[in-house]
Amino acid sequence: MYQEQAHVDVDLVQFEHAVNRATQDLQRIVAALARRYLDVFPRAGDPRQLSWRELLEIEEQAFSDLAFQSRNPPVSIDALPRIGPATMPGTDLSGLIDWSQSDPSLPVVYRCVREILFAAPTSEHGTDAV
């Protein structure tokens, strides 16, 4: 009995590490995609005027990245929350995105793009958007 319990703990620790690695990997991919997307499709005056459709496209490209899929086990990829009604209840996924949510349990793609947008200078003086 004791040996079984120890084995389960090791598996849970390994699983947690795999999910953390997949999260960090996904963040790097999303950051690159989001920056590229924002450079190609600049928003008039405010880059935070991103639509849910555009964010979902970034998410789909990130999760579909073959290198991401090959570096991470499917079980750890499946553990990452995706944007949708289950992870963002009550959110209208049409129109522009409300970036005021900052809960750490939100999908990685939302949090990552939010960080990029709010870290970007909003004026000639380089003040951060908050």
UniProtKB/TrEMBL annotation:
Top-level taxon in the UniProt lineage: Bacteria
Protein name: DUF2471 family protein
Source organism: Burkholderia ubonensis subsp. mesacidophila
InterPro entries cross-referenced by the UniProt entry: DUF2471
Pfam families linked to this entry: DUF2471 (PF10616)
